[in-house]
């Protein structure tokens, strides 16, 4: 059984127990599958621990679903399971127009071009003041680029773009990841490169969420740092990086 089948047959229809069983069985055969780990943690982790206790009310509009709301407010439609559980929903496919849902955190109306300012301003109202580390610009954690790196990064970027145009998106994203590791500032006005970069950002955010759900906070923060160098206005990374820093601080107090 594929992950897609488990998601559409079980998770979207509120068959959480069946979905958990199927995911665990799938992971026995594919123990390193990130998608399976991602959905399993949404089923087993405490939603308030994952998304935070602070929320804003949202009145459901026509055409909205937990998936569209997760995409809009959490940065990934596949986070519909944990968002539904956050709202005590036993069936994510059932959502009533006009009902009021809890949306984690506060919606940021605008995001500054610098991730430093964004990360400093996005906070839970009830939280204590941010530690200094929460206001460090993400790119401070990115290794310095050696003189030879930009040239190699451009080469990898060109190769990833060729793969993308051939339809090999997964390989293209993996190669672009190598390019960004060498030169996080790698840019191109090519529309295909822009689209590929967005795909890398979305994929990296999902990986960071897996790490966050598993409380590998340093690794998650490091990945969000990389994302924010590539796209400083990517709001989900700004928000969840800040939450990860807050959670890390709380854990260090115990």
TrEMBL record:
Which Gene3D superfamilies does the record associate with it?
LysM domain, Tetratricopeptide repeat domain
Pfam families for the chain: LysM
The protein's superkingdom reads: Bacteria
InterPro entries from the xrefs? LysM, LysM_dom_sf, TPR-like_helical_dom_sf
Q: Where is the signal peptide?
A: none
> What region holds the LysM domain?
56-103
Annotated region described as Disordered, given as residue ranges: 117-151
Protein's recorded name: LysM domain-containing protein
Q: Which organism is it from?
A: Dyella monticola
């Amino acid at each position: 059984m594929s992950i897609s089948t488990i998601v559409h047959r079980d998770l979207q229809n509120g068959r959480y127990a069946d979905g958990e069983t199927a995911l665990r069985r799938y992971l026995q055969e594919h123990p390193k599958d990130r998608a399976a780990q991602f959905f399993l943690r949404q089923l087993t982790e405490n939603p308030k621990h994952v998304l935070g206790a602070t929320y804003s009310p949202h009145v459901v509009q026509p055409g909205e679903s937990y998936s569209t709301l997760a995409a809009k407010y959490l940065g990934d439609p596949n986070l519909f399971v944990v968002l539904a559980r956050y709202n005590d929903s036993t069936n994510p496919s059932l959502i009533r127009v006009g009902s009021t849902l809890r949306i984690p955190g506060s919606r940021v109306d605008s995001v500054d071009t610098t991730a430093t300012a964004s990360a400093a301003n996005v906070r839970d109202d009830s939280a204590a003041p941010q530690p200094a580390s929460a206001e460090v610009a993400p790119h401070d954690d990115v290794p310095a680029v050696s003189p030879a790196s930009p040239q190699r990064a451009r080469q990898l970027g060109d190769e990833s773009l060729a793969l993308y145009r051939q339809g090999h998106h997964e390989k293209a994203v993996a190669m672009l990841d190598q390019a960004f590791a060498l030169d996080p500032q790698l840019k191109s006005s090519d529309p295909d490169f822009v689209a590929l970069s967005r795909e890398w950002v979305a994929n990296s955010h999902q990986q960071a969420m897996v790490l966050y759900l598993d409380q590998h906070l340093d690794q998650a923060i490091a990945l969000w740092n990389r994302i924010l160098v590539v796209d400083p206005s990517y709001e989900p990374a700004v928000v969840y990086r800040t939450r990860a820093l807050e959670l890390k601080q709380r854990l260090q107090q115990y």
